[in-house]
User: What shape does this take?
Amino acid sequence: MKILHIMFSVGWGGLEKYAIDQAVGMRERGHEVSFIRRANTETAKALFAMDFPGQEWAPLPYVDIMAMVRIRRAANEMGAGIIHAHHSADLGLIFPAMIGLKQIKFIFSTYMRIPRPKKDLYHRMEYGAVQRVLTLSDQMTENARRNLPVAPHRIMTMPYGIRIENFDSSSIPKGEIRDKYQVPKDAPLIGIIGRLDPLKGQMEMIRAMPAIHAKFPNAVLALVGGETPELVGTYKPRLEKEVESLGLGKSVIFTGYSTNPALPLADLDVYVIPTDNETFGMSAIEAMAMEAPVVGADNGGLPEVLDHGACGLLANPRDPASLAQAVIRYLSDEDLRKTMSRKGREKAQRLYDRVKSMDRLEKIYQDTLSES
Assistant: This one.
């Protein structure tokens, strides 16, 4: 197969990284993969380092005739069978470029919930060329079926896949946090992995610590992640000030960004995802694979990932008391931690193994190409 990915987003987060991982997966299987991307972005740098063929430039938003011409020319020159887009803002450039190119199938992956119906004339035109819409969870699939002008059977769930072998607790060395920050072995270690951002719930988790300390006075919270680029120098000081005002002292650790999330996960007794309305939760899958007991926000896609409480505990992400209660429940019950750890690992292996994920994506491509 010949697959052309198009992504002009300026960010460098889960969306961009997972789109690249899909492209890598198909290239590993022998398919010809190319990437049109925005110039002077982290995405462009990463693709260049991986030696991905393609083009890069900075199109104008929404209406850029030259960009449409260049997309059409690139698809024809490659002989692409599939165009795969990952950013909704790019659809307005792609669908005019595809007019008359019936030999090319168009797939769009959405990584966010659709906030409102998009069934007006413009969006019917924009999505009219899309043969498949891929979402991360069944909840997102139902949301997209309600709000997009695409036949329901063409909208399907395609969850993240991770390299399970990279998250094997029996082979990952411990000590990334405990040794570096001198956390005692008997101190319960709670952690969040994610950029420092108001939507990620670090503030609420800090405010949950006094209640946790009432039961486990030596518990430590590790906040693993760098600052959100737009909030550098503004939000982290607010978190630090809250730590100081609550008298938490060294009970909250800011570790900065980790290039390998398996390392901090190996040290944790409880992993918390207090994100406000997380659409899926890649870190939940990684924690489950690492057999870390998970507390997840009871909204967005996390209840589905955690089997609505069967593979992890759920808590209100906006409520420090609810988060504290779930963490205390884990720390008070070793059998519960072991049970949830085992069930989480089993589900990660069953549904979120990258090999199986790439199998599904490859079949979606093949089935789409076979349609008249």
About this structure: The first helix runs from residue 14 to 28. The chain is about 40% helix and 15% strand. The CA atoms of residues 88 and 110 lie 7 Å apart.
